[in-house]
UniProtKB/TrEMBL annotation:
It catalyses: Release of an N-terminal amino acid, Xaa-|-Yaa- from a peptide, amide or arylamide. Xaa is preferably Ala, but may be most amino acids including Pro (slow action). When a terminal hydrophobic residue is followed by a prolyl residue, the two may be released as an intact Xaa-Pro dipeptide. GO terms for biological process: peptide catabolic process; proteolysis. It comes from the Bacteria. The lineage of its organism: Bacteria, Bacillati, Actinomycetota, Actinomycetes, Kitasatosporales. InterPro entries: Aminopeptidase_N-like_N, Aminopeptidase_N-like_N_sf, ERAP1-like_C_dom, Pept_M1_aminopeptidase, Peptidase_M1, Peptidase_M1_aminopeptidases, Peptidase_M1_dom, Peptidase_M4/M1_CTD_sf. It comes from Streptomyces alanosinicus. Gene3D superfamilies: Neutral Protease Domain 2, tricorn interacting facor f3 domain. Residues 1-24 are annotated as: Disordered. GO terms for molecular function: alanyl aminopeptidase activity; metalloaminopeptidase activity; peptide binding; zinc ion binding. GO terms for cellular component: cytoplasm; extracellular space; membrane. It is an enzyme of class 3 (hydrolase). This is Aminopeptidase N. Residues 293-503 form the Peptidase M1 membrane alanine aminopeptidase domain. Pfam families: ERAP1_C, Peptidase_M1, Peptidase_M1_N. Keywords: Aminopeptidase, Hydrolase, Metal-binding, Metalloprotease, Protease, Zinc.
């Protein structure tokens, strides 16, 4: 699965610290036509109208007990989705799901349970014996008693269509009224579509059968054939419940193929497919998707020595998706924003390629070999995150993807690893709520960074040979940490236990700082690397690092003239090989980004960067320095205004477009969160002036021009700047080469709406111009951004007090609600937030709960009073669900960090 942290799509505001894109709302009610069913409609409800019951939150202990008792031979799942298009009696809410599970029990006579979250159950049969649904089904579990050695369970249920992106999501395209369905399950939402044993280590083969409306196409993990209105799909290999998948509707579908002949003469042919909504077909560059797909398959076959095992390879770009993508074997699903409706930079194409390759890596790391329980989620997500970039560099046109990784992905990891909720890469996952929250920067980006360090530690050949043995030894099985470490120990000849203890089983990030002593002649007498660890996580780790020395050249560039690769271990490590070198102006202690650490600078190096950062010739070294300066800003070691000044001075010289866009996001975050309140107005003027200057100076039609245009819209506040945005929209002003496509129009409209320069009628006219699902999301965000107390009250009610909006529109409303220029307007909602969040968490799904708790935390009310209110809530709600408390603690940490940074900035002199 791929998340969106650190990335943003056209028209989408970058998430501020502590915020994320994890939306969700409700979707369905019970089917009252089924008179024989157990009616659970009167129980307390979460999302989708489905009753909330404690059994939804499966614990690790329960899963282990069930895995010890059962082994599953196979599933037959029959879904009737014809109700999706309605029958004239109102919007359809449920569909019929009939599941047959064949399984064995190691202790005949024992009892267990199957998982199902559904409004109603019509019948349950165990080994030919009819059970009373009212007695055995409680809304999330089906009690199974007196099991035989071999068993057959048949469950006939009415399951709920979703509007949350969980389970069977139903989307109606406002452009043409067409209905589209898709499923999304991780970590435990397949039980919203069919009865099962919902845990990753009870793998089984699946046969799906789907009845669909006339004119629809249906896809699943296996190849499908249609007979009348019934689609039947080939049996899958043994896989986990959460990676089964169904996509159905009048999707636009494009095909291709991949062929590979191996050294032994065997030939592998993989049918390729790519699909999207019909409304997006004119924008769908399927040829590029297929190009990256074929390149990735070649790369992984070259390196993994295990042929792709799941038959076909379809990739579905679906609407209102909560995630970046999901690795369902044979049918990968993606957020449809990866189909670009307007002009985007190469960074967006690189990000899409990275996600395609990330999900492809999962076919081996995650689907073929799966973690036993969510404790070892890193066994799939860390590897996929690493392999996505590894393959992007090795197989595609995006040869600088490691720069993006160093600058964007690791920034997500550094933030997560300094939160109070930080955890080891191998986490302690007690239950499904823990699992949901651990799809985070530690599991993804830190885990991938640690693997990059591991490759430097054991060597690439040993690492890849370990992967090959791992696949062959554990194919279609489940593993733990020790299973991977054992093969890596075999191939590298190293003791992996010490490395694992330091890097996988402890939390926190180390800081590495150079110390340089010069001799009387001005050469290096001694160069050492000092390692520090935070008091909360005092682990000092072994680091394989490259130390680079840089000086200015006669041409005025700042170039590397010496490099040593060495092992840093303990509090201080002397790099003896650099003794006698010429005195450096800049020491970069993690040159080439081999390890995972926060880079610090000595005084000489920091002074050199202040004057000559733009003269650094190596783009990766430059990206690492930018990242280090950003970490210093977040840590209140560098005033926010100094970071902004560096961006304004050197940002226009940044050649890497992905780094430039990250600098824009960081500069805006520095202004909004870390600058002293008294300097924000002046800082905003400086950013707007600088952005407009670079916009006008950029090469016409270039991606740099587009990036500066979007950044200018983000920071535009003054009346002349807003006037220019208006004139660019209506065509009375132009900038040579700047194409005002529909996505850029919406990007310009949001700040106009937020500052009262574009009202409801203007936004309605723009929606008429772009009457699509994408246009509707943009309009909703802009409507919520307007500077009106009534607008804010309505937006709050729509998200917090109602479940009428789909997940995508909840996401858009929250994005529009919280505007930096409207701190006074949204101040009353700080108190309302703390009064509402426990109820929201209790009544809604975890998806919508996370969205509200993270997205509406009053981060912009950055005053000590807000910090005190947060502490009061935490003190008064010690018994609140741990996952909820974790989110509030994380937001509190972000707020405290912002206040510290503001205090640092307040001591700086304006410059």
């Amino acid at each position: 699965m791929s998340l969106l942290k650190g990335d943003s799509f056209p028209g989408q505001r970058p998430c501020p610290p502590g915020h994320s894109l994890v939306p969700g709302v409700r979707g369905a009610w019970q089917d009252r036509s089924c008179s024989a069913a157990i009616d659970v409609s009167r129980r307390p409800r979460d999302h989708e109208g489905v009753p909330h019951v404690p059994g939804e939150n499966l614990s690790r202990d329960e899963a282990r007990e069930r895995a010890a008792l059962l082994s599953v031979d196979g599933y037959d799942v029959s879904l009737d989705l014809r109700s999706a298009v309605g029958d004239g009696d109102g919007e359809p809410r449920t569909f019929r799901s009939v599941t047959t599970i064949r399984f064995r029990c190691s202790e005949p006579g024992a009892a267990t349970f199957a998982d199902l979250i559904a409004p109603s159950v019509t019948s349950v049969s165990l080994n030919g014996r009819d059970l009373d649904p009212g007695q055995v089904f409680d809304g999330s579990r089906i009690a199974l008693e007196d099991l035989a050695a071999e068993n057959e369970l048949v469950v006939d249920a009415q399951c709920a269509y979703s509007r949350t992106g969980e389970g069977m999501h139903r989307f109606v395209d406002p452009e043409d009224g067409e209905v589209y369905l898709y499923t999304q399950y991780e970590p435990a939402d397949s039980r919203r579509v069919f009865a099962n044993f919902e845990q990753p280590d009870l793998k089984a083969p699946y046969r799906f059968e789907v009845r669909a409306p006339e004119g629809w196409t249906v896809w699943s993990n296996g190849a499908g054939e249609r007979a009348d209105s019934v689609w039947r799909f080939a049996e899958t290999k043994p896989i986990s419940t959460y990676i089964t998948c169904v996509v159905a509707g009048p999707y636009h579908y494009v095909t291709d193929s991949y062929t590979r002949t191996f050294e032994d003469g065997t030939k592998l042919e993989i049918p390729l497919g790519a699909l999207c909504r019909k409304g997006l077909a004119p924008h769908f560059d399927a040829d590029d998707v297929f190009l990256v797909t074929r390149q990735g398959l070649d790369f992984f076959h070259d390196h993994f020595d295990y042929p792709y095992p799941f038959g076909k390879y379809d990739q579905a770009f679906v609407p209102e998706y909560n995630l970046g993508a999901m690795e369902n074997p044979g049918l990968v699903t993606f957020r449809e924003e990866y189909i670009f409706r307007g002009k985007v930079t190469q960074a967006s194409y690189e990000a899409r390629a990275n996600v395609i390759l990330h999900e492809m890596a999962h076919m081996w790391f995650g689907d073929l070999v799966t973690m036993e329980w969510w404790d070892d989620l890193w066994l799939k997500e860390s590897f996929a995150d690493f392999m996505g970039t590894f393959a992007n560099v090795g197989a595609t046109r995006f040869k600088d993807a490691w720069i993006t990784f160093a600058n964007r992905r690791k920034a997500w990891a550094y933030r997560a690893d300094q939160l109070p909720s930080t955890h080891p890469v191998t986490a302690d996952i007690r239950d499904l709520e823990d699992a949901k929250l651990n799809f985070d920067g530690i599991t993804y980006a830190k885990g991938a960074s640690v693997l990059k360090q591991l490759v430097a530690y054991v060597g690439q050949d040993a690492f890849l040979e370990g992967a090959r043995r791992y696949f062959k030894r554990h194919a279609y099985g489940n593993t733990r940490l020790g299973d991977l470490l054992s093969v890596l120990g075999e191939t590298s000849g190293r003791d992996m236990s010490a490395w694992a203890r330091a890097w996988l089983q402890t939390a926190g990030v180390n800081s590495l700082t150079p110390q340089v002593l010069l001799d009387p002649s001005g050469r290096v007498a001694e160069l050492a690397v000092v390692q520090e660890a935070p008091e909360s996580h005092p682990e000092e780790r072994p680091h394989r690092v490259a130390v680079g020395l840089y000086r200015r050249t006669p041409e005025g560039t700042l170039a590397r003239y010496a490099r040593v690769e060495t092992d840093v271990d303990g509090p201080r490590t002397v790099v003896a090989e650099l003794a006698g070198a010429e005195a450096p102006e800049l020491v970069l202690v993690n040159d080439d980004d081999l390890t995972y650490c926060k880079i610090r600078f000595d005084d000489t190096s920091l002074a050199a960067l202040r004057e000559h950062l733009g003269a650094l010739t190596d783009p990766l070294a430059r990206a690492l320095c930018w990242s280090a300066l950003w970490n210093m800003t977040r840590d209140a070691l560098l005033p926010a205004r100094d970071f902004i000044a560096l961006v304004l001075r050197f940002g226009g010289r940044e050649s890497d477009i992905g780094v430039l866009q990250m600098l824009h996001a960081w500069a805006n975050s520095a202004l909004v969160h870390y600058a002293a309140p008294g300097w924000r107005a002046a800082g905003g003027e400086l950013l707007a002036e600088g952005a407009l200057r670079e916009l006008r100076a950029a090469e016409p039609g270039s991606e740099h021009q587009l990036a500066w245009a979007r950044f200018f819209a983000t920071v535009a506040v003054a009346e002349p700047d807003l006037k220019l945005l208006t004139e660019l929209l209506d065509g009375t002003s132009t900038i040579d080469g700047l194409e005002m496509d529909q996505e850029l129009r919406w990007a310009f409209l949001e700040p106009l709406a937020a500052h009262g320069a574009a009202g409801e009628s203007v936004l309605a006219a723009e929606l008429a111009r772009d009457d699509t699902a994408s246009g509707k999301r943009h309009q909703v965000r802009c409507l919520a951004a307007r500077p009106s107390a009534a607008v804010k009250a309505q937006a709050w009610a729509q998200v917090v007090e109602s479940d009428a909006l789909s997940n995508a529109l909840v996401e858009a409303t929250i994005a529009g609600f919280d505007q930096p220029a409207q701190r006074e307007l949204t101040a009353p909602y700080a108190e309302k937030y703390f009064a509402a969040i426990e109820r929201v968490w209790r009544e809604r799904s975890i998806q919508i709960g996370m969205d509200v708790v993270q997205g509406l935390f009053p981060a912009l009310q950055d005053r000590p009073e807000t910090l005190a209110a947060t502490d009061a809530w935490l003190t008064e709600h010690r018994d609140a669900p741990p996952a909820l408390r974790r989110l509030v603690l994380e937001a509190r940490d972000d707020l405290a960090r912002a206040l510290n940074a503001q205090a640092c900035d307040a001591t700086a002199t304006a410059g």
